[in-house]
Amino acid sequence: MTAASSPFDWLRVGHWTDVEARTGCTVLRFDTDVVASGEVRGGAPGTRECAMLDPRRTVPGVHAVVLTGGSAFGLAACDGVMGELEAEGIGYETKFGVVPIVAGMCLYDLGVGESSVRPTAAAGAEAARTASTQFEL
């Protein structure tokens, strides 16, 4: 792995990886408001909050994006990212508190490595906590 430095001081990247099971998750955190968009394709896409990427939505952007292995099970990593952001007071302001907007996408990697090991909420939280402008590629 080689280290890279983000040319954008508002972007932090964090990882959780299980080398033996050959799975993991990557979190992209934004320290400023960002507008994101995406396109969902395929016969069985595994996504979370991707409808929020439509520019016609009430929420103007996202606070983090999670790319995860573990098929749909790995989307649990998004819960951990939401918890970390909420604890830091980062999110869309509502009358009852902040709601972090975390878009997530998973890939089906259950046939590679150990299929019973999947990114969890704790894995997502760790990746969000350790996110930095210096990250491995």
Largest sheet: 5 strands, mixed
Helix content: 10-25%
Give me the number of helical elements. 2
SSE order, one letter for each helix or strand? EEEEEHEEEHE
- Note the overall shape: globular
Number of beta-strand segments: 9
Beta-strand level of the residues, as a percent range? 25-35%
End-to-end separation in angstroms reads 6 Å
Numbering strands along the chain, what is their spatial order in the largest sheet? 2-3-5-8-4
Average pLDDT, all residues:
90
Radius of gyration from the alpha-carbon trace, in angstroms: 15 Å
Kindly name the structural category.
Answer: alpha+beta
pLDDT under 50 segments (min length 5)? Answer: none
How do the helices and strands line up, and which of them pair or pack?
Layout: E1 3-5, E2 11-18, E3 23-34, E4 47-48, E5 62-68, H1 77-87, E6 92-94, E7 97-99, E8 102-106, H2 121-129, E9 134-136
Parallel strand pairs: 5-8
Antiparallel strand pairs: 1-9, 2-3, 3-5, 4-8, 6-7
List keywords for this structure.
137 residues; alpha+beta; 5-stranded mixed β-sheet; 2 helices; 34% strand; globular
Structure described in brief:
With 137 residues, this protein is an alpha+beta fold. The protein has 2 helices and 9 strands, in the order βββββαβββαβ.
Description:
This protein is α+β, with helices and mostly antiparallel strands. Helix content is 15%, strand content 34%. It contains two helices and nine strands, in the order βββββαβββαβ. It has helices spanning 77-87, 121-129, and strands at residues 3-5, 11-18, 23-34, 47-48, 62-68, 92-94, 97-99, 102-106, 134-136. Strands 2-3-5-8-4 form a five-stranded mixed sheet. A two-stranded antiparallel sheet has the order 1-9. A hairpin with a 2-residue loop joins strand 6 and strand 7. It is globular, with a radius of gyration of 15 Å. The chain starts with a strand and ends with a strand.
